[in-house]
């Protein structure tokens, strides 16, 4: 009897592995046509100034609405785009659309609104990346000062020197560099000093930890550290008033999270302007 169960369990396990792989291949196949079939959309999530509460900018977050698979989270498909190299084309699409959005919302010269996009390490490492960015800036006629690139520490650590060199080139175009999910990677303070960054984005896990006494000093120190080297700080994933108030006390410059707004479709965002 035990043997029978054991064998059954093994077969169950094997089956679920195959299903995962099959599911992944199905997604991969559908993704090949997703761009030309216009199945991607960008949602935008605001970032507000902690003190004035005015809108500082928006982060573009990709969504895939597939006729076969329904609404698929980027956590499920970005890595497939990366593995297949499709992220390069999709990333260009994201950037171009985000630039067009940035033009539409920046109607008031006196009140600049920044639009940031997430950049995968595969995109950054691609030979044409800087040229492509330059071309899209030119064709969309966007002021590069209105654009931010979000890059994670982990993305930078591989081929560090080469990536840093690219970031300097990007920054020379006038765009801002944002270090995303800060605190989750392995970069030491020594590396931080060498990165050409403008904004540090504290990972949601630190914001979650504000609910405990041990978590507070860590968040407070990250804000102080960022300020001491001249960086602005955003906190991501802020969900409660309590978290907001603590971050305000620590002088965190910008707040993003469900407390302010979830990511919303472009059309809805445009209605604000
Ligand atoms: P990320 O850049 O760190 O984005 C933050 C994620 O947290 C987003 O998930 C956002 O919807 C979610 N979020 C924001 N505020 C809250 C909150 O208060 N509570 C909770 N629970 N979640 C919150 P999303 O949109 O599912 O994106 C997941 C990740 O996928 C992003 O993490 C980013 O790494 C990647 N991604 C999204 N869009 C793109 C894209 O256009 N290009 C690339 N390369 N990656 C993208
Ligand atoms: Mg991001
Ligand atoms: Mg993030
Ligand atoms: Mg994150």
TrEMBL record:
Signal peptide: none annotated. The chain holds residues 708 to 980 of 980 of the full protein. Residues 24-273 form the EAL domain. This is PAS domain S-box-containing protein/diguanylate cyclase (GGDEF) domain-containing protein.
């Amino acid at each position: 009897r035990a043997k029978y169960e054991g064998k059954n369990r093994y077969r169950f396990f094997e089956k679920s592995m195959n299903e995962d792989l099959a599911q992944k291949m199905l997604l991969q196949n559908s993704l090949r046509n997703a761009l030309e079939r216009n199945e991607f959309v960008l949602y935008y999530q605001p970032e507000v100034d902690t003190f004035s509460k005015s809108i500082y900018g928006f982060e573009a977050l990709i969504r895939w609405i597939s006729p076969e698979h329904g609404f698929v989270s980027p956590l499920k498909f970005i890595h497939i785009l990366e593995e297949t190299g499709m992220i390069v084309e999709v990333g260009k699409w994201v950037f171009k659309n985000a630039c067009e959005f940035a033009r539409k919302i920046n109607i008031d010269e006196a009140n600049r609104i920044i639009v940031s996009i997430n950049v995968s390490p595969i995109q950054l490492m691609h030979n044409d990346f800087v040229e492509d960015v330059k071309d899209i800036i030119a064709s969309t006629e966007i002021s590069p000062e209105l654009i931010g690139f979000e890059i994670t520490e982990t993305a930078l650590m591989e081929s560090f020197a080469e990536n840093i060199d690219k970031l300097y080139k990007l920054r020379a175009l006038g765009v801002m560099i944002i270090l995303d999910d800060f605190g989750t990677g392995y970069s030491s303070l020594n590396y931080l000093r060498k990165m050409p960054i403008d904004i540090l984005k504290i990972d949601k896990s630190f914001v979650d930890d504000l609910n405990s006494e041990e978590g507070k000093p860590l968040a407070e120190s990250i804000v102080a550290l960022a300020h001491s080297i001249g960086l602005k700080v955003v906190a991501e994933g802020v969900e409660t008033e309590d978290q907001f108030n603590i971050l305000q006390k620590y002088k965190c410059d910008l707040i993003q999270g469900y407390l302010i707004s979830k990511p919303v479709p472009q059309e809805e965002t445009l209605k604000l302007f």
